[in-house]
Amino acid sequence: MPARIALRARWHSATSRPFSSTSSRPAAIELAHTIHEAPDGQHSQKSPILLMHGLFGSQRNNRTMTKDLSRNVYTLDLRNHGDSPHDPVHTYTAMAEDVEAFIKTQKISAPILIGHSMGAKVAMTLALRQPKSYTALIPVDNAPLDAALKSDFGAYVNAMKKIEDHRPPVKKQSEAAAILAKTEPSVAIQQFLLTNLVKAPVSTTQADGTTTAETALRFRIPLGTLAKALPDLADFPFKDPDVARYEGPTLVVRGTQSHYVSDESLPLIGRFFPRFELLDCDCGHWVMSEKFEDFRQGVGAWIRRVVDQDLQE
Fold first, then answer.
1. Across the strands, what pairs with 215?
2. How confident is the model at residue 5, as a pLDDT?
3. d(CA 240, CA 242)
4. Known catalytic membership, residue 36
5. Among 84, 117, 133, 265, the one annotated catalytic
6. Domains by residue range for the chain, with CATH
7. Distance between alpha carbon 297 and the CA centroid of its chain, in Å?
8. Between vectors from CA 229 to CA 146 and to CA 86, what angle results, nearest 5°?
9. Which of 36, 43, 81, 285 is catalytic?
C-alpha cells in the first residue's frame, strides 16, 4: 500500500501557555551533529530541519534522509547516543533542553523538527515547550501520551549486555549478530542495533590468574543508563493540552502495523497539535527504514505543500 496523507479536522482550543523550565536543572549536553548543506544555495529562504533519531539510534541512521530536501539539515546524536556525551539522566525534558541549547549555539532560526520514536517525543516536547519557535513538526511513529514501550526494547538491552559479557570476548560482528539473533530474528533490526558496536580494549583473566589485554567489541551507548530510562521513555512530560499546545503545521507519520499511534490516540494528538495531518505507511515501527521511499516522498511533498507554500504567502 502506498503512503497516503489524510487530513484531520482542526480542534478548537484555548490559548496555550508556554512551558518554563527552572534554573536548577543541570547544564545541557553539547550534542554531536552533522550539518548537511543544501546544494546551490537553495536553503537561503527555507527553514532548516533538525533530524532526531530513536532509541539505540544515531545521526548515522538518518543520513540518506538529508538528500532532496533543498534546505540545510542538522542530524543530531541525542545524549547517550552516537558520539554525544553520556549522562545518567535520560528524560525527554533533558533531551529537549540539550536540543534547545544546540539551537541557540548554532543560531538556528525557526527549524522544522523531525524525530522518530524517542526522537518523535523529543520533537513534540520541544514544540510544546516553545510553540512559537518552530516552523513545523513531524513526529514519526510516536504519540504524546504515556504508553508502555514494546517489550522488545528491554529484550534488546539484555541481548546487548550478553554480547558485552560474553566470554571469550566477542571480536567479530558476526559473533555479536549470532547472539542477538536469539532475541531478534530480523536481520535489519540486528544490523541497526549493531551499528552501536565499537572496538575497545578489554582485560581478560586467564585460568592461571594472569591478565591479558586485547581488543573486543563493546557498545558505545551506556546500556545500564538506557535500561533504567525505559520507564521514563514510556512517559510524556505534558499531560494537559489545555496548558501546552503547538498550533503550527504538524505531520504525524505512523506505521499502520505499529501500535504506537493508534486510532484511539488521534483525538489527543488533535488537542495537542490542532493542525495535524496524518501520513500512513504500510509498515511497522521502523518507518524510515522499512518504507523509506514512501516516507521520503510523503514528507517532502508535505513540506513543499504546507511549509514552503506558507512561507511564500
1. 201
2. 46
3. 5
4. no
5. 117
6. 4-146+235-312 (3.40.50.1820), 151-223 (no CATH)
7. 19
8. 135
9. 285
Note if 285 is an active site residue. yes
Taking each helix axis from N to C end, the angle separating 118-129 and 92-106, rounded to the nearest 10 degrees, works out to 70
pLDDT, residue 205, reads 67
Mean of the pLDDT values across residues 113-118? 97
Are 54 and 98 in contact by the 8 Å Cβ rule? The answer is no
| pLDDT at 190 exceeding the cut of 50 | yes
pLDDT tens readout for residues 49-61: 999 999 999 998 8
> Which long-range contacts link 183-189 to residues 24+ away (Cβ below 8 Å)?
183/155, 183/156, 183/158, 183/159, 184/152, 184/155, 184/156, 184/159, 188/286, 188/289, 188/290, 189/286
